[in-house]
Design brief:
It is found in: Cell membrane. Its main location: membrane. The chain is mainly α. It has 21 helices and three strands. Helix 6 packs across helix 9 (170-183). The longest helix is centred in the middle third of the chain and has 39 residues, at 205-243. The radius of gyration is 22 Å and the shape is globular. 57% of the residues are buried. Residues 282-286 have low confidence and may be disordered.
């Protein structure tokens, strides 16, 4: 059995530098050379394998097998879910039901710009993140806000910063699913750990939106909306993430938040209305879409929630099926035990539940075979790069873990002891800022975070959760996300301006996350012990 060396170069500094190879390579390729994510991940995979073979002396055949296992996990645990989630979205668009839903929301958002920002960017944006992710909330919400009178840059800022809290459970829980896969921690435990951090984080963004739209006057005049928005989202998100799983928290959080806000605004409105554009909304039915169209759009989301909950919940036997397991083992010099990377093929994974949901939704919406085929075609055209990125970056991460590079990095990071709580979110933040993907950051740093926590005596669920939530907070400054987000505004190919505007906020919310991590570690560490 291959034995992972802790200090293969004989020099601690050089070993740490070598173990950072995947991060350095991705930084150069993505930020420096501005390559697309899939190509950068492919080149990064090749270079990581070479370093693992030459420096860590891992057998090339075993490294290749470990990479293949990671590629299968990336395809089956990530792409299979996202592709069918995106196909549901495209089917709703092609049948006109998504436009009906969007139009109904806009017409019921009142004339106040501060309320519009929270209803659309916060509540509705979380639904888009939960279904699709990958920058779509920006691209979809920003034009709605611009139509309502927001300046383009302000619309993009509001869309981006409202999207902080939902990202870990975005694309039907993909980041949390991959975090569980690479660490070997139980999926529900990881989901619950992330949910505890997100629940506190979610208290802040609605206040930021009020400030962005109307400075301190917005906070003074519309503060009840911020309180209701954050608490209602947590009410819909936290129980599902903690007791059902990571697939639906964004969707339930969004729908509960929007519904409660909608009812709240029937009994409370700000005394002064801040209207950026004179558009008359009188609620009720849209002029363009019928009541049936709106009800059918709601029905699609309800079908998705029911099918996924029954299929993937802890009570379901489907998620426990395993037909074939592939595994590559090594002996960890750090942990003094066998460690392994593995892939268990289960045909009934969450992605299959999304596929079944899509078939039922298509039947209920009476989508023709032509529309269904076009939805699949659109999804592949939109997501082929994401499929390759998931394949290559998780393959890279599995080589990083199997070779011992992750353990060499954790070996010295654990010397920080409790102070690692402060550093932990930074790794997630940097990983997502480079790749544009919370999922990629979790794949790369999940084992490192878990191993460091174990060596430093920290709660094992807390540092992986901080990695994931830290990654969320880099989304507003990630070039990959910004490129998708600005695609529907006049800031196309001007992502740098948007990123610079978002950077101070992204850093400020990261500091807030560090405080959350420290408080949990000091006052409630038992909440993050499996």
């Amino acid at each position: 059995m291959y034995v992972q060396p802790l200090n293969p170069t004989g020099n601690v500094g050089l070993t740490i530098l070598a173990s950072l190879t995947p991060i350095i390579v991705l930084l150069i390729l993505l930020a420096g050379l501005r390559l697309s994510a899939w190509l950068a991940s492919l080149i990064g995979s090749i270079i990581t394998i070479i370093v693992a073979a030459l420096v860590w002396k891992a057998p090339l055949e075993q490294l290749t097998y470990a990479w293949l296992i990671g590629a299968l996990v990336g395809t089956w645990a990530i792409s299979w879910i996202v592709f069918w989630g995106l196909t549901i979205y495209n089917t709703l668009v092609l049948t006109g039901k998504f436009d009906a839903f969007r139009d109904w929301i806009v017409r019921n958002s009142t004339n106040d710009a501060r309320v519009q920002a929270i209803l659309l960017a916060w509540s509705f944006g979380a639904l888009l993140e939960g279904l699709v992710g990958f920058g779509y909330p920006w691209a979809f919400i920003a034009p709605l806000l611009i139509y309502l009178g927001f300046e383009d840059l302000k619309a993009l800022q509001v869309s981006a910063l409202a999207n902080n809290a939902p990202v870990s459970f975005g694309a039907l829980g993909t980041p949390v699913i991959i975090l569980s896969a690479v660490t070997g921690l139980p999926l529900l435990f990881v989901s619950s750990s992330v949910a505890k951090v997100v629940a506190v984080l979610a208290l802040l963004p609605p206040w930021i939106l009020l400030y962005l739209v109307d400075k301190w006057r917005g906070i003074k005049e519309a503060w009840p909306v911020a309180i209701v928005a954050s608490l209602s989202y947590i009410l819909g998100q936290y129980p599902i993430a903690s007791f059902v799983g990571p697939y639906l928290p964004d969707i339930t959080g969004s729908l509960v938040s929007f519904s409660i806000l909608f009812l709240f605004l029937r009994i409370w409105k700000p005394k002064r209305v801040l209207s950026l554009k004179n558009i008359q909304f009188n609620g009720g039915e849209s002029k363009k879409y019928s009541r049936k169209d709106i009800l059918m759009s709601w029905a699609a989301f309800i079908i998705l929630i029911i099918v996924v909950t029954l299929w993937t919940g802890p009570w379901s036997p489907l998620t426990k099926v395993s037909l074939v397991t592939l595994e590559q083992s090594a002996f960890s010099s750090l942990l003094h035990k066998k460690v392994a990377v593995s892939f268990a093929f289960n045909p009934f994974v969450a992605g299959t539940s999304i596929l079944v949901s899509w078939l039922i939704i298509s039947l209920v919406l009476r989508a023709s075979p032509k529309i269904m085929g076009e939805a699949v075609k659109r999804s592949f055209k939109q997501y082929w790069g994401g499929i390759l990125t998931g394949l290559f970056v998780v393959g890279l991460a599995y080589v990083f873990n199997f070779s011992g590079m992750a353990y060499s990095l954790a070996w010295k990071a654990s010397d920080l002891g409790f102070l690692f709580i402060i550093v932990s979110p930074l790794f997630g933040w940097i990983g997502c800022a480079l790749s544009g993907s919370n999922t990629s950051s979790n794949a790369l740093f999940g084992v490192f975070q878990l191993t460091t926590a174990r060596l430093a005596g920290l709660p094992i669920g807390l540092t992986p959760a901080l990695n994931s939530v830290g990654a969320e907070l880099a989304k507003p400054v990630a070039p990959q996300t910004a490129s998708a987000g600005v695609s529907t505004t006049k800031y196309v190919r001007k992502e740098g301006i948007v990123i610079r505007a978002n950077l101070p906020w992204a850093i400020g919310i990261l500091l807030y996350l560090i405080i959350i991590g420290v408080i949990y570690a000091l006052l409630a560490p038992s909440l993050f012990i499996s």
